[in-house]
User: Fold this.
Amino acid sequence: MVMMKLLRLALMIACLAGAARATTVIPPTFDELVRESELIFRGRVTAVKSGWSQAGEKPRIATWVTFAVERTLRGTAPESSITLEFVGGTVGEHRLEVAGWPSFEVGDRGVFFVENRQARMCPLVRLRHGRYRVVDGGSGAAERVVRDDYTAVEATNDRAQPMAEQSGPARAASAVTTVGLVEFEARISSRSVALPRPQLAPR
Assistant:
């Protein structure tokens, strides 16, 4: 039974070979992040649910992440909440993980750069590069942003560095060295006006 489950997952992974190759991404500049986004919003994760997705030729494990939208910075969010689908997750004894994919927990807050909200693999721009975490500035200071791997955002005019494989609050950047949330969102709004929205190819 276990071998059959492992074989089934192996076949699914083979079908997702394109996704595996996509986990090696070129870190974007800030302008590329904004330009490639159809939607940018600040939000909080309210639900994370995994199951079998029937989209595509074969069923596959997917995770649906629901966000409460706190502020829309580019594009239009249809409701006060939005749900995005990501390939991978855990269903019973079945588990599918794709290296380089973002992961979410209820209560997480961040600024999210969405390339295509209808995408079934990873809707964020360049995988984890499309997520910036909102963190407490500490000692009553204003909220600040860090990258998905908790490294500092020192400026918004430089190309991002590759993501660290290990990430977590223990390696969180000092609040002194990372950009404030207000400044970060102001920069997004400014560049969004200057940069055209992407023309998505038909799917």
